[in-house]
Specification:
mainly alpha; about 260 residues; globular
């Protein structure tokens, strides 16, 4: 993929470029997702087969911790792959994971801080939470791609980049959400119609596990597209606000 032209992109163009990057680097992204999802995915299926979260509380805690940590690594690895691909420099999955792993601690703090602010905002008449989400959503790509940022600085960086553009960011998030979650909701609904039920009206555990497995696999391969879109939109904001040349921008990326 060639380095894109330096010009502001519309929402449709951001999605189009993101899909192009996702398609071009699908194999690399799939390896990252598979590696980072294997253990949490297997644990999740085992917990469900063993009777659910409350039947296996200790294993459930291990499952959630492994899920959060490994998904954080997958997110950072995806951002690295998309960023380098967007700049015309393909990056292998193992190099991406190697770059991503040292950032786990800061990314977890960033994610928890973002979630806390958004949740508090949602409780405060809902609108402040939406504003916070649109203003802080680029904290992860900022922390991954701009060397030396702390979690607080990454959140502040995102807030600065989105100033005056949050309505547009909201539209982008809504569009991406529809593209990602409509297939998941549709699959869940179709699966629910065909799940065999017991006399008590509850779905059999075997069928439920199959449904969770299929939905989980689909989700694993849809969510990287969201981070493709987010990374392309991050670059678009930098071009709009800072007039940044991509070759200069490339020199500021975190080195291996």
């Amino acid at each position: 993929m060639s380095v894109p032209a330096l010009r502001p992109l519309s929402v449709g163009e951001i999605l189009d470029v993101a899909f192009g990057v996702y398609r071009l680097h699908f194999a690399t992204l799939a390896i990252i997702v598979a590696v980072c999802s294997a253990v949490p995915f297997a644990l999740g299926l085992y917990v469900q087969a063993a009777g659910g979260l409350f039947r296996t509380p200790l294993l459930s805690v291990v499952y959630y911790l492994s899920f959060v940590v490994m998904q954080t690594i997958a997110t950072a690895g995806t951002v690295f792959v998309v960023s380098e691909g967007y700049l015309g420099r393909p990056l292998g999955p193992w190099d991406a994971l190697r770059r991503a792993t040292p950032l786990v601690g800061r990314l977890l703090v960033t994610s928890l801080s973002l979630s806390f602010v958004v949740i508090v905002g949602l409780f405060l008449f809902f609108v402040p939470g939406i504003v916070a989400l649109c203003g802080l959503i680029f904290a992860t790509p900022a922390l991954v791609l701009e060397p030396g940022l702390s979690p607080t600085e990454a959140l502040g960086r995102s807030w600065t980049l989105t100033r005056g553009a949050r309505r547009r960011v909201f539209g982008l998030l809504i569009t991406a959400g529809i593209l990602i979650y409509i297939p998941l909701i549709a699959l869940g609904g179709i699966a629910a119609l065909f799940l065999p039920s017991s006399e008590a009206g509850l779905a059999s555990s075997g069928a439920l596990i199959v449904t969770l497995a299929v939905t989980g696999v689909l989700q694993m391969f849809l969510l990287p597209f969201f981070h493709c879109m987010l990374t392309v939109a991050y670059y678009d904001l930098r071009v709009r606000r800072e007039g940044f040349d991509l070759e200069v921008l490339a020199s500021t990326l975190q080195s291996a």
